[in-house]
Amino acid sequence: METIVAVLAASASWMAPVTQAQTVPAAPAPAAQASGPAWQLVCGPAPSASPTPAPAPAANQPCSLVQNLLAGEQKQRLLTVILQRTPQAGHNMTIALPHGVLFPRGVSVQIDEAAEKPLVVQTSDQNGAYTGTPVDAAMLAAIRGGKTLKIGFTAGNGQRIIVPVTLRDFPTGLAALDRSPLPVAPKPAAPAPAPAKPK
Known about the structure:
This protein is α+β, with helices and mostly antiparallel strands.
């Protein structure tokens, strides 16, 4: 979760922050991508005053492929989709959702007109709720060749919301992501020392 929060913070230079709980718009959700490429490569924290959407990759620094969707006249973040590499050279997708999501109804992802993939809401914090899924080779190929990733969730009032996420620029972004260093696998915890035997 710390990594996801860092990625959201790093992308703050081109997305409007969420300052309060939002009323989820009616379906289909009106959303707009930020200017520039739809998918941005984010490598480490970006300077808050930086006009560029993402810093250049540093040596041995893992990156994330990120798309922010903004809603309303205030251009507040509706949701964020984050694709990351795993230490095993696979990929994981995390979706940062807005406040007001009805957790028991879950989340769905759908590539173009393919079958929906159901997901559960995994956790939440002051920025919203989070869900995610491993991305296998078949799903990655479908995303790379698709036009729209549809993310569905249910608002607290019971209304189902479908947010279309463009896959424009995804193949280029994925190629850049896959050229970035793999994240380091977490080290296993050291075993606790054995209690000293009484003399």
